[in-house]
Design brief:
Blueprint (H helix, E strand, L loop, with lengths): L16 H18 L6 H18 L2 H5 L4 H23 L8 H6 L2 H17 L2 H7 L1 H21 L13 H24 L11 H51 L1
Helix pairs in contact: 1-2, 2-4, 4-8, 4-10, 6-8, 6-9, 7-8, 9-10
């Protein structure tokens, strides 16, 4: 089945309570938490911008048409995984550090990297995508939350470099983000160059190619931002190490 962009595309907004209500509750709990914890203005900005980005691709026409227009689905996918997830991390990681096996397992840097890459490629290069698109409830109740949770787990250790107990060094954070560009850009590239529909003719070929090009180019642009963020923290980390070494050298000289 093929679908074209309707003339009144921007008139199709939706409430989507199955997704909106959980995120409204999340924002409410965060607001209450900010009253008892020293959450900075910057952290609040990151968190609420993350919530807003979820709403923009769920409740807007992008979300409404995601099951029928591939390029809308791809914008939604990219936003939830590459923008919403990282922003929610930046807004909460300094104050949200559960100590339980499940959270520790899914935020393991290597496991979260593998799950993130597998979700992205598995959805778009297997029959899973056609199944999800045929059953909208799977898209709304499973796929969309999975994008946000998996992204949160992946970025959890990569973007928090203020704490010395981080499970991955700033240098490895940079390399992890860099190598994630490979499955992201290749996913977009192979979707774009596919000579026929990859999804049982559910979308027009041109629609599929637009979605692939958005993933191909868009992921590189967004990833560059997070890479720059990680490189900045890497540089700052090295500066702190240099200051500590200088202080130790100075202390040794005073003893002599």
């Amino acid at each position: 089945m093929s679908h074209s962009v309707p003339a009144n595309f921007w008139a199709w907004w939706q409430l989507s309570p199955e997704t909106s209500i959980p995120f409204i509750l999340l924002a409410y709990f965060y607001l209450n938490s900010s009253k008892v914890k020293a959450i900075t203005r910057g952290e609040k900005w990151y968190f609420y911008t993350g919530i807003l980005s979820v709403a923009l691709v769920i409740n807007s026409p992008i979300g409404t048409h995601a099951p029928t227009l591939f390029w809308c689905h791809m914008i939604q996918h990219m936003t939830l995984m590459m923008i919403s997830g990282p922003l929610l991390v930046l807004g909460s990681v300094a104050h949200f550090k559960p100590k339980n096996f499940i959270f520790e397992f899914f935020t393991n840097p290597w496991i979260s990297w593998a799950i993130y890459a597998a979700l992205m490629m598995g959805i778009h290069f297997t029959s899973l995508h056609a199944t999800v698109m045929r059953h909208v409830w799977i898209h709304n109740f499973i796929e969309v939350p999975a994008y946000v949770f998996v992204a949160y787990f992946f970025y959890y250790n990569l973007l928090d470099k203020k704490k010395p107990e981080s499970r991955i060094s700033p240098a490895l954070s940079v390399f992890s983000l860099f190598f994630m560009m490979v499955p992201e850009t290749l996913t977009g590239f192979f979707i774009y160059v596919a000579p026929k529909s990859l999804y049982e003719n559910m979308f027009e070929l041109n629609d599929q190619r637009i979605g692939g090009s958005l993933m191909w180019a868009g992921s590189m642009i967004v990833d560059t931002v997070w890479l720059a963020f990680a490189v900045y923290h890497w540089i700052k980390s090295e500066e702190r190490k240099a200051l500590l070494i200088d202080a130790e050298i100075a202390a040794e000289r005073l003893k002599k």
